[in-house]
Fold DNA-formamidopyrimidine glycosylase family protein.
Amino acid sequence: MPESPEVQALADELGERLHGRAFSGGEFEEFRVLKTPARPLASVAGRSVARVRRFGKHVDLEMDDGSHLVVSFGRAGWAAWAPVAADAPAPVVAHFAFDGADLELTDAGAWLSLGVSVVDDPSEVSTIAKLGADPLAPGYSRADFDRVVGSRRKQVKALLQEQESFAGIGNAYSDEILHTAKIAPLAHAAALSGDERDRLYEAVVSVMGDATAARRGIPIDQLKAEKVASMRVHGRTGEACPVCGTTIEDLPGASGSSSAQYCPFCQSEPA
């Protein structure tokens, strides 16, 4: 579920609610969640949250002493204010306690994807250090886009999800971007025409920007439903394309949590 529009909304809510609150401790239901065993949660206990930032699909809680509590959501991690209902769809894997506000971290995946790190700088988290340019960053430019698309002989759907190239884009929004750009998911980046590159760049910026604006202010427990409801092709197998009316199909070879959808008319391969 987590992609940058939703993670940005989460970071905004955490910032509003946790700023100035002291971290009083936490515990793990699954010990593998902590990625820095030499820096346990106790090392930041008593420190107050100075600011909250997003890096791709990661949230950084910077403390007043300059230390950082980083949550990496991976494919299926998320957060909720306590208490989480016993019948919640995702199990709680970690608990964070702040003065008067308790946060639960959940993971709905078949394998654990959420991670927590205590570091002196967010770049010490390897997946943050490797992040590419973020399409939601104020300075994101066509040069950033061209630098990673270049002559890459990689399917454009996979390239969009490559965090080292496009920070924060995942499976769902890559489907939406390609549908907006009218580009086949399995087309190779190197084979794109100049016009297709123009459309893809514009779609990356507009789809991610519009989604972020739409999620702003949505409570974190409603973000998943809002995201699902906003999709035009992703998760819409068998429904009519909102542009041309053609039946939306699954991308061949994709399945489970990696399933992907497209419109075979709007996104047909060039003859």
Observations:
- The chain has two domains: 4-129, 142-231.
- Strands lie at 23-28, 49-55, 58-63, 68-72, 77-81, 92-98, 101-107, 115-119, 249-250, 261-262.
- The mean pLDDT is 94.
- Residues 194-215 form the longest helix (22 residues).
